Amino acid sequence: MNIIVCGAGKIGAHAAGILALEGANVTVVDNNQEALDALSETLDVALVLGKPSDAKALQNAGVEGADVVIASTEKDEVNLLCASTASYLGADRTFAMVTHSAFLNRSAMDYSKIFSIDSLVCPAYTTARAIASRLRNPAAMKVERLVGQSIEVQQFEATKGAPGIGRHLSDVKLPGGARLAAIVRNGETYLPSGDSTVDEGDEVLLVANADVFHDARRFFRTKDAGRRSVVIMGGTPIAVWLCRALQNRGFSIRLFETEKNRAQELAEKLPWVTVIQADPTDPTVFTDEHIENADAFVALTHDEHNILSCAWAAGLGVKETYPVVARTDYAPFVKAMNMTQAFSPRELAVAEIQQRLARKQLTKVASLAGDELAIYRIRVGKDAPVSGKPLSELNLMPECMVVVIEHDEHHGVVPDAHKVLQERDVVFVVVRKDYEKDLRKLFAVR
Description:
By secondary structure, the chain is an alpha/beta fold.
């Protein structure tokens, strides 16, 4: 695979290194000779000096024969122009890194279509989504993200006293957009029917639209249903995305920002969040705000400050601590200080690109329940047996269940029984082990 990475900054350099190690032929384009020289010392990649958005520089890098072009400079507008130019010049697929939320808000304007870009990747959004999934699902044994932040998938233990315990699932009125996709009992895993029951101690796999997931989970788990307190340090773009992801999900959020104008801006932008102009690591502020009682502390400034702040918060009683750490060589320190989990924006962004590059008509995206079940992403093929009929009329159970319909790379929905699949629809299905051959026939995978 021939890949051109435009921009030799942190994300571009990381992407170039990861993709080169996977066997791709990588070319890096940048107008900074020192940045290119630094890459040449550690990576086996081709280097082109020039402006990443300049057509001549892209042609020198071989854009006409490129399978993928990744625009990863520090400026959104440059990345959009770079990826759009690469698409026009013949690149097969293009990715553009963006930071500003306006570029991801498709309700106003779809910039990816306007600029003929295959995918927009926002490291801040991707990181916030990962943190939010962990915060929303503290009791999860396994959490998967299928479509942006619009769908939640969680495997957890059913607890005593939950209203859905011991009842036929046909009598359990889950919120619309929620589906129980699997039950694990005594080491055996099965896809449930309306006659199935969930018993105390069972592990269940719940798939739901994000806006109803919290309510659906309460049917099978009571222990973590209360409101959770989250303290966020740093008013960065990640903080904004994170607050939006946690809105109306049972969270009390306090966001600390030391810069006055930025704090005022965030208070206006995020009215459901308590924005405080202060440093939460100031001992007086920490004590006055009783931060030791918070369920989680998320640090979003710079690496060293994030690590030290989380270690300090954990030492004073905060249960969960989540630093954002860009440098991979800091991983041993994070582990040694017993922080809950660190998140790297560049690693998450590159992992998202890798995931999209690996997509085929049928792609396995997750293994669940000890590999007894798997989740596949499938594009419905021509004349597929599943096309043209409501889901309720398809003979898929007990081996297969359609759990999500993908609208685009950031949005999807859990379908109801009346949904009719059509050619080129993209769906996520939960299937039993060794069912892939049948799956290919049902969805006409070529």
